[in-house]
Amino acid sequence: MKAKPVSKQQGAAMHVAEIRSRRGDKEYVTQLLRRTYRENGKVRQQTLANLSALPPDVIAVIKAMLKGTPFVPLGEGFEIVRSLRQGDVAAALGVARRLELAKILDPAPSRMRDLTLALIIARVVEPLSKRATARIWHTTTLPNDLGIEGTTEDDLYAAMDWLVERQDKIEAALARTHLAKGGLVLYDLTSSFVEGRHCPLARFGYSRDKKRGKRQIEYGLMTNAQGIPVAVEVFSGDTADPATVADQVDKLKNRFALERVVLVGDRGMLTSARIESLRTRGGMDWISSLRAPQIRVLVDQGAIQLRLFDEMDLAEVRSPDFPGERLIVCKNPALAVERGRKRDELLAATEEHLRALAQAVAAGRLKDPAKIGARVGRVIGQHKMEKHFTWDVRPGELVYERNEEAIRQEAQLDGLYVVRTNVPEADLSSEQAVLAYKSLSQVERAFRTLKSVDLRVRPIRHWVEGRVRAHVLLCMLAYYLEWHLRQAWADLLFTDEEPGTRAGVSPVTAAVRSVAGREKVSRGTQADGTPLHSYETLLLDLATVTRNLTRIPALPHVAPLWVTSTPTHVQQQALDRAGADLSARRQTRPA
After folding, report:
1. DSSP states of 470-495 as a string?
2. Cα(226)–Cα(93) distance, rounded to whole angstroms?
3. Which of 165, 297, 458, 461 is the S-S candidate for 192 at Cβ 3.0 to 4.6 Å?
4. CB neighbour burial string for 168-187, b if at least 16 within 10 angstroms, e if fewer
5. What are the sequence ranges of the domains in the chain?
6. Which pLDDT does position 1 carry in this prediction?
7. Do the beta carbons of residue 560 and residue 81 sit within 8 Å?
8. 135 and 449 in contact (C-beta within 8 Å)?
9. Alpha-carbon distances of 465 from 22, 164, 209, 416, 557, rounded to whole Å
C-alpha cells in the first residue's frame, strides 16, 4: 500500500473578493473575506467570512488593511483639506431668503440676480472693494450656496450695471412693503468722499466727513418711521440739501403712487422756501423745525413766553408768520445744561487762544493789522464764537472782550426747539409730532452704519457714474438686510427690546433705555445665562462656524466629505433666529 503524500501549503494571503450575480433584473454584490494559498503547486482559495452585511466604509477599511495599509486611529488619520467660512454667510443668507430679497431685486431668476444678492451679503459680512471681494469670497461658502463659483471682477461690475438699471423697480417694491398711505417718511442727506478725479458726480462741497481737499458725492436716504430704508438717491457733491427735496417728493408721488404722506426732514432740509413749494402739492404734509433766528423772532414778538417753560416743557403756539402751521415749542432742561456747559468750554478755549495772540502782538512778533485781524478771525471762527466776542487792533495791542449781551440772548434759548408741521391735530397730537421729528435719528443711525466699518460706503473708488450709484444702492440694500438681522437677533444683543416704551415720560426728554433694557445690560446675559453680544461680535463669532472638506489619508479611495463644525449654543440661537441653512448647496470640491 502506497503512503499518501503530505500536502504542502505555501504563500498564504488574505483579500476581499467582490462577487456579482444577477437574478432576474436585480444584481447582487457579495463581499467575501478569502484566504489565498498555494498547495502542492496549485493556487487555492478558502472563504473565511461573508462581509456583505457590513457598512461599505468598514469594508473599505478592511480592504485597505489587507493591502498592507497601516491602521491609524481615526483621531490621528482625519485630515481637514479646506475650511470655508459659513456661519455669518448662512445667517445673512437666511434673513435674505426670509425677506425674499432676491425677488425684490428681480422676480425672474438669473445669474445677475444671484451675483447681486451675493454682493449684498458680502457687504454685510465683510465689506471690501469689488476687486477684493472677487479675490476672497471663495474663502466662504457664499459662491457655492448661490451657485456662482468662478466669478470674476468683471462679473461683479456687470452685476452692478444690471442693478442700477433696476433701481426704480427695487425701490418701488420696498415702498409697497414698508410705506403706508398717510405714514411718515423720513429723509436726510449726507456726503461721502470719492477717490480720484474722474467721476462726473464728484465735486467739492460741504464735507460732512471733514475731508478737506477731497471731492465728494451726496446722497439722500429715505426710510419709514422705523428706519427701514426704501430708497436712496445720489447727487453731485456740490448739491445743497434743500435742492434734493423736490426729487424725493416726485418719487413719493409718482413712482411710489402714494396719495398722502408726511415728509419728515430737519430744518436744513425742509427750509421755509421748500415748505412753500410743498404747499402746492396735494397730499403732501411735512414735519420740520425752526432755525435759531426764527425762534428768536418768536420770542421777541411774544409768541413764545419763556417764563411758561419754568413749569412745562411743551406748548403749542401760533404765529401769523407761519400761516396754516402748528408750532410746538419744546424745552429740554438737560439739553439746556449741556449746551451751556459746551458754550462755556468753547468761550474759555477761544479766550486762551486770543490771550496768546495778544501776547504775540504786545511782544512785537505780530505787527501787520491785516495779518492780526486774519489770525483773530481764524481763532474765533474755529469754535464759531464770532458773535460772542468783540475785538479791536490798536498799535502794539490786541483788545478783546466777551459780548455778554449776545451770550445772554443765546443762553435764553438753550434747550429750546420748535417743531413745525401742517398735519392737523386730529391726525397728529403735539406729542406725536415731537416724537415723529425726533425719529429722524433713525436716518442718522443709518448714515452712521453706512459709513462705518460695518458697510463701508466710503471711500468710493468707482469712476463711472452708474457704478457710483450702484455702489450706494448696494450699501443701502446691505443696510436693509442688516436692519432685519439686528431685529432677528435682538434678544441675543445688548439691544433694548422695548425702546418705544415712554409711558408717563415727556416726548421732549431724551430717550432712555426701558427698565427691562437696563436690567438686560446690567445682567450682561440672556435669561438662561448665555452671554450677550454686540451685533459686530456676534457676526464675528458666527464666522467661526465653518464648512470643512475632510478626508482620511489612509483611505485614499474614500471620497472626501463635507463636514460643518458644530455650532455653540449661542451660535445655534443666532442661526435659528436668522433661518440659516448650514447644508451645502451641492457637494463639490472647491477649486
Report:
1. HHHHHHHHHHHHHHHHHHHTGGGBS-
2. 23
3. 458
4. eebbbbbbeebbeeeebbbb
5. 9-71, 334-412
6. 44
7. yes
8. no
9. 69, 10, 21, 42, 54
- Could you tell me how many residues make up the chain? 591
pLDDT number for residue 247: 84
Backbone angles phi, psi at 386, to 5 degrees: -55, -45
What is d(CA 540, CA 537) in angstroms, rounded to the nearest whole number?
A: 5
Q: What pLDDT, on a 0 to 100 scale, did the predictor assign at position 342?
A: 96
C-alpha cell at 288: 420740520
Give pLDDT tens digits for 556-585.
777 788 889 999 999 999 999 999 988 754
User: Scanning the structure block, which residue is given the C-alpha cell 439739553?
Assistant: 335
Residue written as grid cell 479675490:
135
- SS in 3 state form for 72-115? CCHHHHCEEEEEEECHHHHHHHHHHHHCCHHHHHCCCCCHHHHH
Range 459-490 burial, b when 16+ CB lie within 10 A, else e: ebebbbbebbbbbbbbbbbbbbbbbbbeebbe
> Distance (Å, rounded) from C-alpha 92 to C-alpha 575?
9
pLDDT for the residue numbered 6: 46
Q: At which residue does the C-alpha cell 500536502 appear?
A: 7
Q: Which residues of the chain have pLDDT under 70?
A: 1-12, 70-77, 454, 499-504, 584-591
Place of cell 443765546: 410
Which amino acid type is present at position 396?
A: G
Q: Which amino acid is at 498?
A: E
The helix or strand, by DSSP H or E, that contains position 32, with its residue range, turns out to be: strand 26-39
Instruction: Show the cell assigned to 399.
Output: 483788545
C-alpha cell recorded at residue 237: 457733491
